[in-house]
Amino acid sequence: MKLLGTIAAMAALCIATVSVPASAQTKTIYIGMNGGPMEKAYTSQVLPDFEKQTGAKVVVVPGTSSDVLAKLIANRDKPQIHVAFLDDGVMARAVSLGICQKLDDSPVLKELYPFARMKDDVGAGVQLGMTGIAYNKKLFAEKSWAPPASWMDFADPKYKGKVVFQSASSSTFGLHGFLAINRLLGGNEQNVEPGFGKWASTVGPNVVEYIPNSAKISEMVQTGEAGLFPLTPTAVADLQDKGIPVAWANPKEGAVLLLVDLCVVTNNPDPQLAQKLAQYLLSAPAQEKAAEAGKQIPTNKLAKMPAAMQQSLGNVDSMTRTATMLDWSAINAHRAQWDARWNREIEK
């Protein structure tokens, strides 16, 4: 009996010894992305499937695109983030700094809209956005105004004191709106003189407030201060979910294409697992879950959106054909000067 007891104890010890390395081998992979609705959508619905498939644990490092890029730059010799989500303008900077490595060749890349594949596949669009015109439905109904239809509606005198514009020096939406109006005034990304020179006689007089980001918009809509402002369909849907009376309009000149891109970080601790995560996030099943959970517009052509989302947006293919694609190389080359000029001349 004593011998049997000894054997049993040794067996239990062996089992315990074997089980420790198994649990210790669980891999953790880190992904940098925007916090808030995006983080909630991915952590609740999208990432759990990848964790089941691979046995890895995916941890979100939340922050704005600029925050994530700053972390990547600070730790570029020994990065802690494996995969990064960045707005397309910020992604262009990351690529120029060598922060992103080429995506592995995969069938999923051929499923993406052509514009979602970055040059040399150093990254790819994981979420599609289009900055257009958002407006206060309650206010427009009270005033019997038709929905806005052009970027130049921001300069219509009837909206005096009802235009809210995000700062072009700190907000992608504000920059998009400014550049769209600059184009209609005769400029482009290499020439912003028309936008700056004519702002005071066009849009400027209508602006009730310049805001650093979109966080204040819900409050300003409810108080009736905000009538129209640049925004994406996804951001509008988030406001609608909170009961804010807003709607989105696609300008007749076309919305400004906005991509949230992903890239696998150069020299990350587990490049093989990072590539697997990137391929999964670009797949139709993952993007369908992101659409259901967070109204993220897919970049994978095979992904289906929920019926209500499809009805609200209309034909995404036709919208992308008319959307304006910006020259981020030209923008980033002059962004610092534009930011200083915006703060000095527009928000003076």
UniProtKB/TrEMBL annotation:
CDD domains xref list: PBP2_polyamine_RpCGA009 (cd13589)
GO molecular function: polyamine binding; thiamine binding; thiamine pyrophosphate binding
One Pfam family, short name: SBP_bac_8
GO cellular component assignments: outer membrane-bounded periplasmic space
Coiled-coil residues: none
Keyword Membrane: no
GO biological processes: polyamine transport; thiamine transport
Residues of the signal peptide: 1-24
Record has NADP as a keyword: no
Keywords: Signal
PANTHER family: ABC TRANSPORTER SUBSTRATE-BINDING PROTEIN, THIAMINE-BINDING PERIPLASMIC PROTEIN-RELATED
Protein name: ABC transporter substrate-binding protein
Lineage of the organism: Bacteria, Pseudomonadati, Pseudomonadota, Betaproteobacteria, Burkholderiales
